[in-house]
Design a protein that fits this description.
- The complex is a heterodimer.
- Chain A is mainly β.
- Chain A has 2 helices and 12 strands, in the order E-E-E-H-E-E-E-E-E-E-E-H-E-E.
- Chain A has a single domain (31-154), classed as Vaccinia Virus protein VP39 (Rossmann fold), CATH 3.40.50.150.
- In chain A, a hairpin with a 2-residue loop joins strand 1 and strand 2.
- In chain B, a hairpin with a 4-residue loop joins strand 2 (54-63) and strand 3.
- Chain B is of the alpha+beta class.
- The longest helix of chain B is centred in the first third of the chain and has 17 residues, at 21-37.
- Chain B has helices at residues 21-37, 40-47, 100-112, 128-138, 140-144; strands spanning 14-18, 54-63, 68-79, 83-86, 92-93, 120-122.
- Chain B has one domain (21-144).
- Classes of the chains: A mainly beta, B alpha+beta.
- At the A-B interface, strand 2, strand 3, strand 4 and strand 11 of A face strand 1, helix 1, strand 2, strand 3 and helix 3 of B.
């Protein structure tokens, strides 16, 4: 199962021209639907990212795994918040940073860059274990300890 | 584009997991020199990248997912403020077309779910990674894989 975030006025689970819309903060799937949840460069664009983590834990079966990548400040403990939503509007705490997006040509706002404290947030969201995994193998196309894959296991 | 002139000798892929910044720093203190030594052939290519606002360098290697020799395109940008910045996480295999971060996810899946393809929800649909996993679920990929832990037949 795959999805995109198509727009704010749609209910999760809506199909738009063959694209399945999901809001990560309110997934349409029943509890314990999947063995694996994958997000790649998604979490930094979600204002209430902790709610998204809780939703990922909810739709995973006990012992299921989340695999996530996002901008990660590998030498920093605390997550850096770049923007927040207040009274329904975006308030920028740092200069706006837009990332490329396959369904929005104008790009998509980065709300935060994560530090190591994100691992604690995974545990608070219902994951029993969480770690940052770096791949290093220059002849295999993994060139450095630049950005990790976060792996988390849903509580049994 | 610059590229490596010859296929470098393979270096084992290292997957290293850390639960804290302190663990990560200890690891780098202990193994940093070895990692840097294994990186020399890439350094040589990257340091010769052209003085351009943006571009990519091609680095020869072997893709785990393709199980075949390939070239990885490492994009870079150059600016007055940051100098030249290589986006290693977006290094794309010319075979499967996947960037580093998605190849890393897929490799972890292969290792963590030996013998069966799990039920996956992936928060993307109009991407190469989604198509790649969808094809894998239909089984053709299994036949093309030489990896020891991926399912030999579709579920």
């Amino acid at each position: 199962m795959g999805s995109e975030y198509v727009g704010p006025d749609l209910a999760s689970g809506t199909e738009v021209k063959g694209v399945h819309h999901e809001d990560m903060m309110r997934l349409s799937f029943p509890d314990a639907s999947f063995d694996v949840v994958i997000t790649s460069e998604v979490l930094e664009h979600i204002p209430d990212w902790r709610a998204a983590l809780a939703e990922c834990a909810r739709v995973l079966r006990p012992g299921g795994r989340a695999y996530m990548t996002f901008p990660f400040l590998r030498n920093t403990q605390e997550t850096r918040v770049r923007a927040v939503i207040e009274a329904g509007a975006v308030r920028h705490l740092l200069p706006p940073q837009l990332h490329g997006d396959p369904v929005r040509k104008e790009g998509i706002l980065c709300f935060q860059e994560f530090g190591w404290d994100v691992l604690d947030a995974f545990k608070a969201a219902g994951f029993g274990e969480a770690w940052a995994e770096f791949a290093f193998g220059p002849t295999h196309g993994h060139f450095g300890f630049t950005s990790p894959l976060i792996v988390a296991i849903r509580n049994a | 584009m610059l590229e490596t002139s010859a296929m470098p000798a393979p270096i084992a892929l290292v997957r290293a997991a850390f639960q804290s910044l302190a663990q990560f720093e200890d690891y780098l203190a202990e193994h940093g020199a070895l990692l840097k030594a294994n990186y020399r052939h890439v350094d040589a290519v990257l340091s010769a990248a052209p003085e351009a606002p943006q571009g990519a360098v091609q680095v020869a290697g072997t893709c785990d997912l393709c199980a075949a020799p390939t070239r990885f395109a490492v994009p870079f940008t150059t600016s007055a403020t940051d100098g030249r910045v290589f986006r290693f996480r977006d290094a794309r295999c010319s075979g499967c077309g996947l960037p580093q971060r998605k190849r890393q996810i897929t490799r972890a899946l292969m290792d963590d779910f030996p013998g069966r393809l799990p039920d996956i929800y992936i928060a993307e649909q109009v991407t190469g990674h989604y198509r790649f996993l969808a094809e894998a679920s239909r089984g053709w990929w299994a036949a093309s894989m030489s990896g020891p832990t991926w399912p030999a037949a579709p579920r």
